[in-house]
Amino acid sequence: MKLIEDIIRFLETRLEEFLRAHPEIELQALDEQLRQQEEDTRRLLQESRAQKQDLSKSLSKLGEEIKTWHFRIEKAEQANRPDLAEGARRREAELLQQGSRLFNQGKSLEEKIRQLEALLPQIAQRRQEVQTKLQEVKAAQAKTAAERVSPWEKLFEEDKLEEEFRRLEMRLAVDKELDDMKKKVGEQKRR
User: Fold this and answer.
1) Residue (of 15, 16, 23) closest to 144 by Cα position
2) CATH T-level assignment (fold) for domain 2-148
């Protein structure tokens, strides 16, 4: 077990070093996590809204049932049937308890929906910050890369300049040599 733990620690250390050396990869991973979190939050929000809508329908239906049993209580009392009235009261009480539970679930869902709605812009803002930072890191890396290339380009330009001067000097030397030879040939012809 100690060997495995050492290997895991070594790999984690190497990964951290790699990420420090390549911050754009870490930022891309963070952006992906935030994108996934935003997607999950949107999905949860949609599901919660659908649950709230279903719960509202259930509460409405339950309210109708409670009304029905309340009228049955009154009918049983008018018909002088205390046994039926008592049974209807028990049923009405059960439905009221069920309604109370559903109402509390609805309140919890409303709070969850509010929290999710508040979370979405926060995630979007954080993701925008990460993307901005990622662009800055990439721009800095491009600038650094350009700076690294520039001295080489400058060296090549200097080499080109040096080569041009050598050609010029060689041509001038050849031209002078030709002039000297022409003079010698001209002198020999005169003799």
Assistant:
1) 23
2) Helix Hairpins (1.10.287)
